[in-house]
Amino acid sequence: MKKKLLFRTGVATVLLATALFACKKGNQTAEVQAVSSTGISASTLKSISELGFSTTDARKVNGGYLVEGDILLTDENLTTPSTSPNLRIAEEEQYRTTNVVKNLPRTVTVSVSNVPTVYATATQQAIARYNALNLTLKFQYVSSGGQIQVVGFNEGPSGGYITLGSSGFPTSSGNPYSQIQMNTNSAAYGSNPNVGYLTSVLQHEMGHCIGFRHTDYFNRAYSCGGTATNEGASNVGAVRIPGTPSTADAASFMLACSNGGDRTFNANDKIALNYLY
């Protein structure tokens, strides 16, 4: 997720067991970096490309390789084959990863630690938004030890962008990704964060945790601006959800870039969520 201001971001994977996502704000797409400055071998870049991801601006980070602005591919992601189709709503709409949460119906617990109170309030509001849809997948706020843990980190702008938050995809065993990291630096949300804005980012990150990719997956420029960028269709195909439109979706909660406001589920998001859960 990005915000169309002075910063930038990226999120998603197709062939994965777990992947780490980051939501940032900005109006620039990633620029190509030389391999010599990324620390990534040619063979690894080839593997990333073969999975359907762009190698533009790819770089080595702790735990794996950061691609497309905010997608962290682990070594497991690069070697684990996929057995599930990729889900989409038309050309520029809703997508899921190859892994989703299994053993439904079930309730996933969510806890918060090391963040200001406003982040906890926003987490509870994001949970309420999901539970109001009456899905077979529900969430429950707990004081500690949640299956998804929202934790804080403090990181200022760097290289023209700032990370708003990060999360990942479900595991191959069917559990949701276990952590959402939220930036507590004042440059991310201001000195007095807006609860609605925080809620929308957490709602977006929870979407990744249960298997959703960006809505404007085929053309990130739709919400981020700049040069059109395709996140990659991978080699697993795609299945359009019946009853959804074939045009771009301007209000989806899973758009790659944030508009800086409180964006929640639109009608097509609800169709996609009900289709999966």
TrEMBL record:
Source species, domain of life: Bacteria
InterPro entries (UniProt xref): MetalloPept_cat_dom_sf, Peptidase_M10/M27/M57
Molecular function terms, GO-annotated: metallopeptidase activity
Pfam families per the UniProt record, alphabetical: Peptidase_M57
Gene3D superfamilies in alphabetical order: Collagenase (Catalytic Domain) (3.40.390.10)
PROSITE patterns in alphabetical order: PROKAR_LIPOPROTEIN
Record keywords, A-Z: Hydrolase, Protease, Signal
Protein name in the entry: Protease
A biological process from GO: proteolysis
Biological source species: Mucilaginibacter glaciei
